[in-house]
Amino acid sequence: MKKIMAAGLIFTMICGSLTPAAGASAVRTGVPASASEAKAGHWAEAALREWTGYGVVQGYENGSLQPDRLISRAELAAMLHRVFGYDGGGAGSAAFTDTADQAWYGPALEAVFKAGVITGYGDGTFKPQNPVSRQDVAVMLSRAFQLVNDSASLKANVLESFEDAASIGSYSAPALKAMITSGVMQGYPDGTLRPKQPLTRGEAVVLLDRLAGTLYSKAGTYDESETLDHAVVNKDGVILKNKQITGNLYLAPGIGTGDVSMENSAVSGKTYINGGGEHSVHITSSTLGDTVLAHPEHPIRAVLGGKTVIGQLALKGPMIAELSEGTVIHSLVLHAGSSGTVISGKGEIASLQAETDGIKVNGVVLAKGQKMVWSSESLKPANAGASTEPGRTAGESSSPSAGSGGSPGGNNGAPGGSNGSPGGDNGTSGGNNGTPGGNNGEPGGGNGGGEPSAEWSPVVSVGDIPGTAQVSASVPDGHTLAVLVAHHAIETPKAGDSLPKDSLLIHPYQPGDDISGVDASVNKYLGVYEVDASKRVVHFRQIILTEADVKPETWSMVWNDEFESSEIDGTKWNYIQGGGGYGNNELQNYTNRRENARIEDGKLVIEAHKEAYQGNDYTSAKLTTEGKGDWTYGKFEVRAKMPEGKGIWPAIWMMPTDQNLYSGWPASGEIDIMELLGHEPNKIYGTLHYGVPHDEVQGSYTLPDGSSFSDSYHTFSVEWEPGEFRFYVDGILYAKQNDWFSQNVNEAEKYTYPAPFDRDFFMQLNLAVGGNWPGSPDSSTVFPQQMLVDYVRVYEREMSQYRQPVEPASHSVVIREPGADGSYIVNGSFEDGLNNWIFQPFGPPEDLFGGRGSVALDQGAVLTSIEQEGDVEYAVQLVQTDIPLIKGAEYRLSFDAWSSADRSMTAAISGPNRNYARYMNDQTLSLSAQRQTYTFDFVMASDPDPDARLEFNMGKAGVLPVWIDEVRLHKIADPDPSLTREALPGGSLIYNGTFDQGKNRLAFWSLDGPAAAEAYAQVGSAIEERKLYVKPAAPGPADSLLLSQNQLGLKENQMYVLSFEAKAAAEGSVIQAAIGNESEPGLYGEQSFTVGTAKESYTMIINMGVKESAGKLVFKLGALPGLLELDNVMLKEMAPPVIIDGFSRIEAENYSDMRGVQKGEDGLSVGWIDPGDWMQYIVDVKQAGEYKVSYYVASGYETGGSLKLLMKRGSVLEHTFPAGEMAESEADAVYTLDVANTGDWGRFVLVDQMITLEEGTHTLQLYAPHVNVDYMLLAPSDLSGTTRNVVRNGTFDENVGEWRTYQEDQLSISSVNGEMKVHLPSLTPDAWNQQVYQDGLTLVQGVTYTVTFDAYSTVDRPIQLGVGHIDSSNNYAYTDFLAGGKPTLWLTSEKKSYQFSFVMNNPTELNAKLEFNLGQITVGDTVYSEAGDLFLDNIRLSGGMTPSR
């Protein structure tokens, strides 16, 4: 069986293959043992010797250590007490009913209990002599070493990969995660964790050793220069000097109120200061990272001197701090509990944030919520715009009141109620096992609405996850269970009734699954249904939950704003400013004025006004916490009072902090906690947006008593867990959502669930006016309008005990069968009138795009009469929807069409639910008065779509009528299973090279070979861990473990670069990469790579020979001695180097590599370039020197864009540096250039700069944010000398890609038999009004040029030749280089050669244009207007010598 293991860990047993010795539960006496008693040769000998020497491990009455004996709960508690020296007194061991103060472990148990490290069982016992399981040890150690406060480790989803993950107690999951991600506890070679297996004394000591490192338990000076893993100081009088601690430092409670000092030392991990008092903790000339200071009973005095630097200092208890000059604290956060803190002296605190009252700094008392900067005795308010995120440590604030939508009740961790779920630090069941609690005997009806049948009685029990319950009931084969959660009594259905539809209904429900969103006060009603195969009710029971039925949960507040200050807190909120509609045609302009946002009477007021302001008719405000409050998972609660009125749209919602992680909206996700439409003041909505294509799930809640949300304050909240959202109003659960997806249009598969809702989001509060959804205000709308917010609170569940995401069932696409005639078009002969056809589907209004017309039957066909042609092709449109297409199949579209005279129209097949993606490219047709049949074949390259549509677009082509008949769409070939995959929009042939898509994040990849069954292979779930971790069970032949991807669309005679990032656990690990096909894996190339222990990029160049139908990439991994990390695998087509020899042109779309950009629709330019996107070009410079580089660019961005060109010698082709982005610091030269707004994204201009190029190969990397780029021209600074042919693509054996047309709907060009065919369905007045042209040509002043070409025509006619320049920045002004002397050339049906020469008298132009003017020409009294085709070939524009000077 294949082992899937936790990412990033090498799985060995934590303590070897021990079989612990069983023994009697002898009474432990606490006899000191000598280090010499450590068992010689024992696998744990070193740790036993060290910790026996410290006095932490003690022996039995006979002096033996017995390391293989199972450790008891009391023994482990005593060890922890000796390590930390916890304070005694208080509750005492008598707090447990089965312990006594006089027992040997009494004082230790008392102290460890008081410290919160142990909590015991729910029945009041501790069971001190019981063995301790691995999961209970994890709980106790993680509390003692404060690992549970490390939210990063808690969010790492490492437990699901263990084969026995189901046996892990939910109470211990956060602790186990913390222990595993910190590297302290590991799994076993067979892929198990064995959470319930007891631990031996030796194993416990090894874990203790890994966490504590070095113990300083005796007063003295320790000045030896050394590097330590971790350190614990538990005695006063200890002085540490010259220590480099790579892990954590614990200044433990055992220091008491004494002194401890640290000098000239550094801590890379965290420092926990829990000891010290009226005397001092002295830290001098030392560097500390994150530091936490807290003592529950008294302040700790700290003296910081020398050049001490602390990263973040979090105070959870009071501190008396004295800072000397030169001391720097980057961030100081004073949490609840730190009241009484006094800070004095000099030094610098870059950010000081008081989250409680009673803080004094150099005599100045800070108010709660203040953020200050302290430097050299000067205390000033922080910049209101500074970005800061308040501390989010769990347990700082009180929980929300019970009943507010799954709010807490009871004590977290105590076992409760009915199923004996584990509690505290142990895994032993408590309570009345299996006995249902509460008023569970209140079922209603079930059999025809009569009395409940005694034979069907569902039983409720406590859930595994906090805030859940479970139900069990038996049903016969073929029947299923369903459970409905409600806040009111559920109406009893009759037998045979249909199952209700509700987002709070779980169907099918598996007995014993956790039911979330329940509580014992509000959402306490469970409707349990037995359902038959047709979803009809067979039995029903209602259960009313009590506290005993629901697993207690605690939500700890980590962020809040009660709006108690006089001004809006700039450390928590940002203002969004400006108008523009915000994608919804909203009418307001958001401002930061007090008129629109302020605090009054302890409430945030967001106020909308009807007033003219900066081009808008309304003003309002929008506040966000972006960068100051960003969270993944939690409870988000807002108490607010809403406005009402037509066109008013208040919202409480969340957006992702990194909006580009899963691409832009909607794929990035949106969480709408509350939205209200002002004309429905008693109804609110909770919605999730996701996609692509855009989709949403939505719930709503209407006040039941006819009141309005504007009458009083209501509490709106959402509970967000991995894979689930629960929406509440005033504690009432009204919607639950757990089915969504996310896909980037530039990727081939959906991101792995629960993306996009698996990363940080920030909060937004706004009051919009108008928009697509609410409509515009009317005369009934009163202004100003106010949204009043009482508070905003954010909670995290204690110990991050969240549910694990369960991927929703796949939604299979149903593809309907064709009609009896085999066609997927319904009513294609119009025998059923106009049924199934839609005219002007975008209405109302039907003339939205300026087109107007009507349809009717005529002569058995559909006649479209056009009154007004409109502004775009689709301004007049006839469509049929719901056409099913499957990926890879080939289809044939055919139809008859004609007009009353010559005109054009287009036909296309698109996906309206996928942003109108084109499945068949738009086909432009030339219609005449003669009925013709048109046929087009195409392959469906996209995913299956049951809702495609056929479009006939007749706009912007005159007003002549169009007849259409006999429309058919047949599938002519099924998908070819060997069909190759095309490159992704980013250019890579490797799909999911980032390991973040599909099931297990391994879509498109296969792991094969003899060693695959026993190999470890896993992709991490945390964002930073989304890479493949793979390792054979043991090293073997390289091809014994193969990671592969096939169906690669490799092209004949093309060059490719394979690139990937890798890191190995063992230095010198060797892997192999091969590119070939199924039968010959290394046909095109094979290469070995030696991978080191640091992440690096690796590349391999492949030169294709004969084209294969399906290429294959194989990584051979069988020889790996340890774990390999693999990521960012790409296989990209490489453009050959551009030769720079005199005048040269680089097409923007011919990049060798890129990130983020998209080619234009015509494929001849690059756009959609955001900050951080780039393109690379490899050039081969033949002559060193100064070059003028001219960029042909456009920008419609308000403030314009910019260009940054990085240049470095060498290229990926020569292996001089890796594939991917070149860092600016690595570049040999950097050139920058601003680009002004050109007026439109399609209005291109030339901008230029000088650069220096050395001879040889270079890589150019271009950043062009907010700029569209067509091409770059490079010309030597000295333009004298000979010139050559400047026309590109002057012969047409393959394509006409470098040529363009003007009035493209009035002519078309194509490559036919090695010539350019120009089809002219009709001729327009003025010769220049129909053109074939090429621009971007360099013409040098003073040079004589000659144009030559071959041409003939199906109709005898004249054409004109033009050479000039168009200045798009100057209203497209035309400069005629022929000075009015455009030659008129006569074409006949005989192919002839033509020639024309001219002198370039104008200044040198780098964007000249050669044009063939093909419209109507008048010669004498004759107007030549007959349509036809003409053919061009061998076009050249060559120059001679520059005239002598």
From TrEMBL:
The keyword Metal-binding does not apply. Transmembrane segments: none annotated. Keywords: Hydrolase, Signal. Residues 553-800 form the GH16 domain. Residues 403-451 have a biased composition (Gly residues). Residues 31-91, 92-155, 159-222 form the SLH domain. SMART domains: CBD_IV. InterPro entries: Beta-glucanase-like (IPR000757), CBM6 (IPR005084), Cellulose-bd_IV (IPR006584), CenC_carb-bd (IPR003305), ConA-like_dom_sf (IPR013320), Galactose-bd-like_sf (IPR008979), Glycosyl_Hydrlase_16 (IPR050546), SbsC_C (IPR040751). One of its GO terms (biological process) is carbohydrate metabolic process. Residues 1144-1280 form the CBM6 domain. Residues 393-402 have a biased composition (Low complexity). The keyword Signal applies. It comes from the Bacteria. Residues 1-21 form the signal peptide. SUPFAM superfamilies: Concanavalin A-like lectins/glucanases (SSF49899), Galactose-binding domain-like (SSF49785). It holds the Pfam family CBM_6. Residues 378-473 are annotated as: Disordered. GO terms for molecular function: carbohydrate binding; hydrolase activity, hydrolyzing O-glycosyl compounds. PROSITE patterns: CBM6, GH16_2, SLH. Belongs to the glycosyl hydrolase 16 family. This is Licheninase. It comes from Paenibacillus sambharensis.
